[in-house]
Model the fold of this input.
Amino acid sequence: MIYHIPWIYAPVRTVLAIWHQLTKSEIPELAKCSVLMKERSRVEETICAMQRAGAGSLQVISDFDMTLTRFAHNGTRVPTTHNILDNRLLIDEDCTKKMRELLNTYYPIEIDAGRTAEEKLPLMVKWWTEVHELLIQQRIRKDMLAKAVKESSAVLRDGYKLFFDHLTEQQVPLMIFSAGVGDVLEEVIRQNHVFYPNVHIISNYMDFDQTGALRAFKGQLIHSFNKREGALSHAAGLRELQGRPNVLLLGDSLGDLTMADGVSEHQNILTIGFLNDKVEERKEAYINSFDIVLVQDETMDVANAVLRYITSLRHKCWGSSLRERNSFLPSQLLVPRLFPFPVLVHLQLEFVGRDHSIFVPVLVVEHVGNDILHDHAGLYATFALRHLQLDELPKLERVKRKKTT
Done:
């Protein structure tokens, strides 16, 4: 089935617009106004490659505070795992005051787009170390953590259950990499009934004495800008992650981008960044660093949609998008995933005119598989392309393929 574009030179931007619209129909969440992408075509190619590899090649690595949890709820900031400990069951008023002073001092530094990670690193170490020392002095009781979490206003992002449920159903491991407090983190997801066997947590864990009182924190300190070291030291020990070269990474800090550094021989990494605060100041840095940026989006909608597509067995990617060029170049272009059966779509040059001396670009729709459905492929293509309602799209005319001798 062939559709003739009556232009001798067809602008590639028109064709790319068609491709982008077709992609939106497959993952419409990527068209949300909160979604920003610097290189959409590369994102599409990465998603397509990961989908071809399937769920068996995928692992998900995610931050926790302000990534899996909401940033705000009903106009109020949602507490981090450290903030959940700000409860009279656990710490006194003086400790609360000192922790808030540290937060007011160091949080602006953590999110300061004008400072490099190297400049921030020693200050983050100082912040986390001082907070942990304050908590140790309070002799926090292990048996009171569950009650403190229950009384807190911690809220996971909308769509969290679908996220956790889908990963466990597809047997995709989820590694939560958090600079927060691991004991509190575990209790949050446990109370939300999503602490499944495929969930692994790397975080700062408390060390309690025989009476159940906090006496220290275990192992190496993990803060927002040393996750690379933690990733390298822990990932090798998780057998479940071996043989899974494709990574979906979720984070809310530029420091989270190093969480996948422990993945050996990775093939594709797709990064999604939640830009929660100081949007205008940090937007450029996030767009230049993450593949997909979600601006003040309190849901898991985009992550769930991407996961649903990558793990789908029904709609296979049969090709990839064309990078934008300055002039028309006839070549195999794309494989729309809009149809209920496999089709190939590409541009090629066709001879026209009585002497067949003129070349024109032609949009070709070819069905792959059952010949009975061949005509239907053309009908679906007609509907899809007309449904786009693009101003730049010229009127399409059905023509017969010329037989070659």
Observations:
- The radius of gyration is 26 Å.
- Confidence is low (pLDDT under 50) at residues 1-16, 314-353, 356-363, 365-405.
